[in-house]
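REQUEST
  id: r-88c1
  op: predict_structure
  target: Protein N-terminal asparagine amidohydrolase
  payload:
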Amino acid sequence: MPLLIQNRRIDHISSTAELFEKYPHLKENARIFRSKPLADIDPKCLLYVQQREFAATTPADNCVSVIGSDDATTCHLVVLRHTGTGAVCLAHCDGSSTCSEVPLLVKTVTSLSNLSKDGRLELHLVGGFNDESETSHNLSLNILAAFQKHKEDIHLETCCITEMNDIMVDGTHRPVVYGICVNVNTGEVVPASFTYKGPAEELRSARTFTGGQMADIYDSSRRLVKIGPCKWSPNPDIAWWLSQNDETILKYLSTSPMAEPPHFVQHMKSTIRFILDTPTLTACFLGVSHSSTRGLRVGNGRELSNSKGT
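RESPONSE
  id: r-88c1
  status: 200
  body:
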């Protein structure tokens, strides 16, 4: 069966406006969702997901109780959960390969679940806004279409996307909600923001910046955050960006220059510096125990600091 709303099959949707017109309760639920206060998350229990990453676990995990992600403008944050087993996945999708990413998310959750057990697969979508290029709108439709193609029943519960996640600030469209988290034990999804985005924040950002595909960053059976294999070719030309002003970096390195969070430019610069400082990195990253304070070990024995213990 394709995607369901209130136990009814969704017909073909040509626009998000049509979706909210046909299913007004989604519109009301989105209003309620975006009005919730930001959750205050303890980094010690958090598994943070960056752009073009996903992570999944179950309530049996004694190391991770919250999965979260933020800094989404045109990107969409996707939570898929089986209500019977509690297996849950959170992904930060940017539209790089939606048709192949969505099946990966479904497979990951179903592989962690006994689907014969009572319960169902529930979907929560948050992200995007009314950007001029309609990147958000196109990604919303692509994600919905990708979920509709699955044989499993998937019930759309939260849909705070595009126009329902939009607000005007000083004459500029911006997202209302930039980030979310899901409670692994209860399945509750709420707005959130995060100060800690590790481990190995710059390395993970560099993987995405240099064209890495959607990656599963967590081995729930071993309680390991994992990154790898990860490599890029030396490219000294990108040093040019470090000499540019903030406006230029925003214009050319963002899909939504007027809506980015304040730290976007500094984040881009630190990512570029990391790539320049490690031009021949080809190691496979082994991972870090989420319950320890050890560093993230890489294949050549080098260690990356991880003082937060995630």
